[in-house]
User: Fold this.
Amino acid sequence: MAHAKNNFLLIKSTLILTFAGVITRILGFFFRIYMTKKMGAECVGLYQLILPIYNLAWSISCAGFATAISKITAQESEKKNLSTANLILKQSLFVSFIISAILNLFLYFNSSFFCKYIFSDNRLDLAIKILSFAFIFMALGSCLRGFFIGLQKSFVPAISQILEQIIHMLTIYFLINKIPGDIKSMCALTVFGMTLGEFFSFIYTYFAYKKFIFKHKKNDRANINFCSAFYLILATAFPLSANKIINSGLYALENILIPKRLILNGFDFKNAISLYGKITGMAMPLIYFPSVFLISLSVSIVPEVSRVYAKKNREKINNTVSKTILFTIIIGLGATVFFTIFSCELGLFIYNQNISFVLKFLGLLCPFIYLQMVLSGILNGLGKQIFVFRNNLIASGINLLFIYFFIPRKGIVAFIFGWLVSLIVACLLDLNVITKTINIRLKFDELILKPFLATVLSGLIANSLAKNFILAHKFLNNIYGLVICTIFFALTYIFFILITGSVKINELKKLVWR
Assistant:
C-alpha cells in the first residue's frame, strides 16, 4: 500500500508541477511575443544577456539548499518526523538569506563594473541594480518550495510559479507605455517586473508554509541537534551548490562570449546582440517548451529515486529509471521532428521574425537536452552529485572551446554544433554512471528504435498532409493553422507511439493504478 501511495504521490506531484509549468510557459510565450514586438530583438538580447547573472546568483544562494531540503524532507517525512525537516529548512533559510544579501550588495555597488568590463554596454546599469534586489526573495522562495516538493505537496510551488509569471507580465503591460522608449528603460522595466514577481511569489509561499506548520504542529522533537543538522545541510547541499555554481558560471561565460565572438565573425555589436536575442530569447524558449513535463519530472524524481534507492528496491528503481528515460526520448524525438517541419511558421506566426535557420538546427538538440536534464535528476536522487558536477563540467568545457575558437570562423553554426557534441558527451557519461550504480540494462529497440520509427512515420504524415494541406489554404495560413497542425502532429505521433509498441496502454494503466 505504501508503495502504491508513493507512486501515486510522485505522479500527482509531477502532474501539478507540469500543469503549472505549462501555464507558466504559455504565459511566457505571450510575454515574449509582446516584449519582442514592443522592444525589439536588441532589447530582448540585452535582457537575455544579464539573465545568466541571475541564474548564477540562484546557484550560489539557494540551488543546492533547495534540492537538499527536498531530498532530506522526503526522507524525514517517510519516517514521520516533520520536526527534523522543519529544522533543516530553517537553517537553510538563514544561510540562503545571508548569501543572497551579500550578493545583493555586491552586485548593486559594482553594477558599473559589470556594465563596462563584462557586458560592454552601459545601458544595463539600472537593470543590474534592480536585478540585485530579486536575489533575497528568489533564494528564500526556492528553499520554501523545496520543502513542499519534498513533502510531495506541489500545489504551493505550482501556484507560486504561476503567480510570479503573472506579476512579471502585468508589471510590463501596465508600465511599458509610461516609461521612456529607450532600451535602457525597457530593460530596467523588464527586470523590475521579474523582481516584483519574485517578491509576491515568496510572500505567498511563506504564508503557505506558516499555515502548513500551524496545521501540522506536533510536540515531537527533531532527531538531530543544531550542529548535526547544519552539517547534514552542508554535506548534502555543497556538492549540489558547487555543481550549480560552476555550471551557471560557465553558462554565464558562454552567453557573454557569444555576442563578442560573433563580432569577430563580422557582425557589428547591434546585429550580434539581435542574433543573440533571437537564439536565447525566441528560439530557445520554443525548444524548451516541450520539456515542461520533464523539468517537473526531474524535480519530482529526486526525492522518489532517493526514497526507493534507500530501500534497495531494485525492481522499482529500474522500472522508474527505464520508463523515465523512455518517456524523455519520446518527447525529445517528437520535438525534433516538429521543430524541423514547422521552423519557418513558428518564427513568423509567433514572433513575426524569421528564425527558421536557428530553430531548425536547435531542434535537432531536443532529445539530448531533455535527456541530459532528466539524467541529472536521476543521478541527484541516487546521491551521485559529484558525477553530475564532473559530467556537466566536461560538457561546458567542450561548449566553451567551440564558442571561443570556432564562432569567429564558422559563426553561430559552431555554437550549435558544439552544444550538440557537449550534450552527447554528457548524456553518455550520465548513463554510464547510472547503469553501473543500479545495474540496469537499457534495451535499444524499446528506447530508441520503436520511438524513432514512430517519429519518422508521424513526421512524414505531418509534413505531407498537415503542412502542405492545412497551411496551404490561405484562410488557415496563420497562427490558427499552426495550432491545428500542432494538434494533428501530436495525435499522429501518439497513435504511432502506441501502434509501434513504444508505450503500451496496459503499462500506462499500471503506472497510474498500481
